[in-house]
Amino acid sequence: MEITVKEASEQLRITESQICRLIRQGKIKARKLGYMWLIEGNSLDYKRQRKPKGGER
Description:
Elements: E1 2-4, H1 5-12, H2 16-24, E2 30-33, E3 36-40, H3 45-49
Antiparallel strand pairs: 1-3, 2-3
Helix pairs in contact: 1-2
């Protein structure tokens, strides 16, 4: 299943620019189709499982 940058940003609650940065860094797997990036849905698990910096108190 592939999703757009906009859909990924909504799911992860981060900006589309941040999604594009993660793609460039290779942290999210995606392929370019014309002018649009298509992201592998299961590659978003990387971001969902990360702990926020600073931790909870």
